[in-house]
Amino acid sequence: MPRPAPLRGIRPTASVEALLATPPATRGFSEEIRAGLMRAGQKELPSKYFYDEVGSALFEVICALPEYGLTRADERILRRHAVDIVSRLPSPSIVAELGSGSGRKTRWILEALSRRHPVTYHPIEISASALARCEKEMSAIAAVSVVGFERPYLDGLLAAAARRQEAECLLVLFLGSTIGNFDRSAGDEFLCQVRGMLRPGDALLLGADLVKPVPTMIAAYDDPLGVTAAFNLNLLARINRELDAQFDLALFQHVARYNEEHQRIEMHLRSRVAQVVPVGAWRDAVAFRPGETIWTENSHKYTPREIVALGERAGFRCDAQWLDQEWPFAQSLLVAG
Ligand SMILES: C[S@@+](CC[C@H](N)C(=O)[O-])C[C@H]1O[C@@H](n2cnc3c(N)ncnc32)[C@H](O)[C@@H]1O
Hints:
Layout: H1 14-21, H2 24-38, E1 43-44, H3 53-64, H4 69-87, E2 93-98, H5 107-114, E3 119-125, H6 128-138, E4 144-146, E5 149-150, H7 153-163, E6 169-174, H8 184-196, E7 203-209, H9 214-221, H10 227-243, E8 252-259, E9 264-271, E10 275-279, E11 284-288, E12 293-300, H11 304-313, E13 316-324, E14 329-336
Parallel strand pairs: 1-12, 2-3, 2-6, 3-4, 3-5, 6-7
Antiparallel strand pairs: 7-14, 8-9, 9-12, 10-11, 13-14
Helix pairs in contact: 3-10, 4-5
Bound molecules: S-adenosylmethionine.
């Protein structure tokens, strides 16, 4: 990326120079990371930044781990019930998916729907590599045309909803319990915003992981191979790569713990020592006390009733719910009222 010339007549200060040197796409990243690491009290980073090319590839491996039963449960329900799910939708329907990832599980829905009529599928992703993979694989399904959006959830959904024909129903997929990354009140607000972009009769298929024994939940986020640890630590590696920081990954430890009160797994990165980490892009440094953590992700767990109530508060009614017995997981078809 060529470095822009300094503005004529203005002697750049350190911060102006740092801004000019930063490509616009990474400015939001730099600002949010800085706000999260420099805040007083608990340091915190947005989990959406896990998913650069390396993070998206590591997430695919997590989905294959024996301890992470969530993805297989989600897929089992979709595989077994795809025909029933799509039979409940008005015809014709198009599909938009929030945070599609590679879209592997979505194939079952697209195949079932495309047996009724040609289908347009809009994967919505902030990870360019995940989106490219999804577009390539899903466009190989007969009678499915794929138009992806490399955008945040709601921007992408707005764009997808704007493209549909008057007579088309919109099915929104939000799979993999990604809803669990939102705090409960933020999840309420998010579903209300999704509902606000839909018409009555449109539907949201929401996949949510259910509460289960604590050791099972912990193992899913702290596997013995260390893949989830690598996924978590890659956030620091990404900051090193993109913001010229000097995190020594060996001086941070992956932590996954269950918060009983909030019914969620919390992931942290714990500093093993007192340290000061320079971040070149800011010409500044982040100080850590020994044992201090950066909170990187929440994964909330639910009961089936909670999902129904969550949908109702946002203006949906639950048309049907499918549960996986092997790994407690719920797929809920929420219809916009
Ligand atoms: C937990 S993964 C789930 C992927 C897939 N839906 C599944 O069920 O396996 C979350 C996905 O959402 C994407 N994502 C996270 N935050 C996002 C945002 N704000 N807007 C769009 N995509 C986002 C990530 O890049 C990632 O691919």
